[in-house]
Design brief:
Blueprint (H helix, E strand, L loop, with lengths): L16 H9 L18 E6 L5 E8 L2 H20 L9 E9 L7 E7 L5 E8 L2 H13 L6 E4 L2 E5 L4 E2 H7 L5 H21 L9 E7 L4 E7 L23 H10 L2 H21 L1 H13 L5 H15 L10 H13 L10
Antiparallel strand pairs: 1-2, 2-3, 3-4, 4-5, 5-7, 6-7, 8-9, 9-10
């Protein structure tokens, strides 16, 4: 229940040739009609507020009229590539209704709202600077988690579909006053989410970096926590950075665990999550092996952070198998092998 602050602003790492080869093999690398930097040529920006007139840290941007028509056409085409594999028939009843820009955070993303003219329904997608850490994080999510995220990479531009759900900070603020039965389900999911992040070394999962997907069930609700930001995949050197339990923003969930969970129950849920990790990894072993092979030779962090993390994990797991690692990819490989060998040491949640 302590806080943690990253050591410095996250460094952006370019898409390497080995990662590009992997993305081409599995269909994530596709030519796009423009790059991230093209969206920076807006002429006006207006702060975007929510329904309560609170600042959202996003700005709605506007472009020169002569450029906007072509830009919107290209963005609609990108949405078609993302959602329908480029079927142009899907573009006929779609149009861009708004573009928002966020200056908060590392990636400075653009959020594009697409409107369906047939029913006034809308969807979003995001355009960000290409960052190897984020791409590895997205792909590990697709391979090792129960979730799937569609994305496209082109040179140093990244396009990601919108992940629907209630932002974690809003969920914690407004949705914890539920029945005891649902509270137990919430903390059960947080235990599993905490374990997933620690196993695959996804950092900075404080409440505003994940969403909660709520599904009505026969009795009560089912909850699933999903990461929405992946730029801290295997980047920081401190072990606790990969455990959502250590972020003060998540403390209300820890307090639920203290109230409703016994250590034996928590251990059971952690073992269940590790078992599912093993099943997913075995079903996609070739893809996972190729991804880790690329990751092992890629630079996605600094040498000092690699040194710190391998020593902290060696101490945590009480093994020297991490000490020979020279990259974050190699550290992740050893972390996963411990799960497969049933030698992974649990984190103590309460």
């Amino acid at each position: 229940m302590q806080g943690f602050v990253p050591s410095q602003k996250k460094q952006v790492f370019p898409i390497s040739s080995s990662l590009k080869d992997y993305l081409i093999r599995y269909g994530y690398y596709q030519e796009l009609p423009f790059h991230y930097d093209d969206l920076l040529r807006f002429t006006i920006s207006i702060p975007l507020v929510d329904f309560n007139e609170q600042d959202t840290f996003w700005e709605t941007v506007y472009y020169d009229e002569k450029d906007q028509k072509e830009l919107f056409k290209q963005l609609t085409k990108i949405y078609a590539i993302l959602k329908t594999d480029g079927d142009i028939e899907a573009m006929e009843h779609l149009q861009v209704s708004r573009i928002d820009f966020c200056t908060f955070g590392n990636s400075k993303p653009f959020r594009v709202r697409i409107l369906n003219l047939l029913n006034d329904n809308y969807d979003h997608f995001y355009i960000k600077k290409g960052d190897a850490s984020r791409v590895y994080g997205l792909e590990l999510e697709n391979i090792l988690s129960p979730n799937y995220i569609n994305y496209i990479v082109y040179e140093q531009t990244l396009v990601i579909e919108h992940i629907a759900g209630l932002p974690g900070d809003l969920f914690i603020k407004e949705n914890l006053e539920v029945t005891e039965f649902n509270r137990i389900r919430i903390i059960k999911e947080f235990v599993k989410f905490n374990e997933r992040c620690f196993i695959r070394l996804l950092g900075d999962m404080r409440s505003y970096n994940f969403i909660v997907d709520i599904t009505p069930d026969i009795e009560g609700y089912q909850y699933r926590m999903r990461a929405i930001d992946f730029d801290q995949q295997c980047y920081e050197g401190k072990k606790s950075f990969y455990l959502p339990q250590f972020f003060k923003e998540n403390n209300p969930l820890i307090f639920l665990g203290l109230k409703y969970m016994k250590k034996e129950t928590i251990k059971q849920y952690q073992l269940e999550e590790r078992s599912m990790f093993t099943i997913r990894a075995r079903s996609m072993r070739t893809r996972l092996r190729l991804l880790i092979k690329s990751m092992a030779v890629d630079q996605i962090s600094q040498e000092s952070k690699v040194y710190q993390l391998k020593h902290e994990l060696a101490a945590h797991h009480k093994t020297d198998r991490f000490l020979k690692c020279i990259s974050m990819g190699e550290i992740l490989r050893e972390n996963l092998r411990l799960v497969f060998d049933k030698e992974f040491k649990q984190s103590i949640l309460i």
